[in-house]
Specification:
The structure holds two protein chains of two kinds.
Chain A: H1 6-28, H2 34-52, H3 55-63, H4 70-129
Chain B: E1 5-11, H1 18-27, E2 34-40, H2 47-54, E3 58-60, H3 67-81, E4 85-88, H4 98-109, E5 119-123, H5 136-153, E6 165-168, H6 169-175, H7 188-196, E7 201-205, H8 222-243, H9 251-255
Parallel strand pairs in B: 1-2, 1-4, 2-3, 5-7
Antiparallel strand pairs in B: 4-6, 5-6
Helix pairs in contact in B: 3-6, 5-7, 5-8, 7-8
The chains are: A mainly alpha, B alpha/beta.
């Protein structure tokens, strides 16, 4: 008896399309930059292709001599998530450094404002004495 | 007359020791040629109150940014105010006030007829130094980074992890730029960076005391291990950046010597 893969294929295609819509919507609404959206769009396209052509999974499974074909899907998912997570950490590190720099500059500016205020007060006092 | 040296003291929760140390500093001869700036790294104790009470100039970070960023704030401030030299010293009383005079003299005149250096390090291991007993982990780290500097820069720096330093304008001007200074672990990696860039570094014997209050940045077992790993990685990175011409050239070199 042959197995009917159509419901699974349809579910994957719908899910992929839904994720694609969510990412595109966020990009249009400027809630994510185009650069970062691309990182999520590529996996969405891969999901849809996987749903449309399940043979690709079997082909890759044979190519890598994998006994359990879904393992290929898990491997691809882990690699994609790893890349996305690494990009996030890269961005996080840059933002931490920039945040520290900004905070440091703010503290110096506050000190300068304070010094200037003291100078103004001193000049005002001198003027009154005159 | 405007003073040309700024003494910077990063401080984080130092209420137990900073008051006594500042009193010693204010009573020292260093006040004849230096101004003070304490960088309060958003202390949650009464450090800021003590500074206000004593009338010490200080700036406060909006939130805790770490030792490296506190130093960098000091460098930036020195640039804005037009100082020619910066002396950085710990506010917990570990570094004796007498070191300032020696560092200042070395920054201005050099040692034994040599040219005035760009960077002066207060060392715990030179003849004439007075220091407390340091842990074997720290000794191991110092020995390791000393050999790395000797190998890569052909300079014998006996105490590359010392926080007691005197910096001339080109050095703190370079450090003040975004990305030129390690905000997390400014240690032997920065010494190697400056030596590779051609800055003249020299050491003088320093007097250091064991801290009476507060806690060191590298306590426990995990923190020193993380420190060693990060420092090792950071040192390799500095070297590779230099070899691949990724280290920005100091502005002063572009117009001046070398």
């Amino acid at each position: 008896m042959s197995i009917n893969y159509l419901p699974v294929q349809l579910t994957i295609i719908i899910l992929g399309s839904f994720l694609l819509t969510v990412v595109l919507r966020a990009a249009i609404q400027k809630k994510i930059t185009e650069h970062h959206a691309l990182l999520w769009l590529i996996p969405c396209v891969i999901i849809i292709i996987g749903g449309l052509f399940p043979q690709v999974t079997y082909f890759l499974s044979n190519f890598f001599h994998t006994e359990y074909p879904p393992a290929i899907i898990f491997a691809v998912a882990i690699i994609i998530l790893y890349i996305i997570l690494f990009q996030c950490f890269k961005l996080l590190s840059i933002l931490v450094m920039k945040n520290k720099d900004l905070a440091s500059n703010t503290a110096i500016m506050e000190k300068q404002i304070e010094d200037l205020q003291k100078e103004i007060d001193r000049l005002k006092a001198d003027r009154k004495e005159l | 007359m405007k003073k040309e040296t700024l003494i910077i003291l990063p401080a984080y929760n130092e209420e137990a020791s900073i008051g006594a140390f500042l009193e010693k500093l204010l009573a020292s001869d260093a006040m004849n040629y230096s101004d003070i700036l304490v960088i309060n790294d958003s202390s949650s104790d009464h450090t800021a109150d003590i500074l206000k009470e004593k009338g010490i100039p200080f700036l406060t970070h909006p939130f805790n940014l770490g030792y490296g960023t506190a130093l960098q704030s000091g460098y930036k401030y020195a640039i804005k105010k037009g100082y020619r030299y910066v002396i950085q010293i710990d506010s917990d009383g570990q570094h004796d006030v007498a070191n300032i005079e020696m560092i200042h003299h070395c920054l201005l005149h050099g040692i034994a007829g040599d040219d005035a250096p760009d960077l002066v390090i207060g060392s715990r291991f030179l003849n004439g130094s007075v220091s407390f007993k340091i842990s074997w982990q720290k000794k191991l780290a110092i020995r390791f980074f000393r050999s790395v500097i000797k190998r890569e820069c052909n300079q014998d720096i006996t105490d590359p992890t010392s926080g007691l330093q005197g910096l001339s304008y080109p050095v703190f001007e370079y450090y003040s730029h975004f990305g030129n200074f390690d905000n997390n672990y400014p240690d032997s990696n920065m010494i190697i960076q400056m030596a590779l860039l051609g800055f003249r570094i020299c050491e003088i014997p320093a007097i250091m005391h064991k801290r009476n209050a507060g806690q060191s940045m590298h306590v426990g077992i995990i923190k020193p291990i993380i420190y060693m790993l990060v420092m090792f990685f950071s040192t390799i990175n500095v070297y590779l950046r230099y070899k691949n011409h990724l280290l920005p050239m100091p502005d002063i070199w572009k117009t001046k010597k070398l």
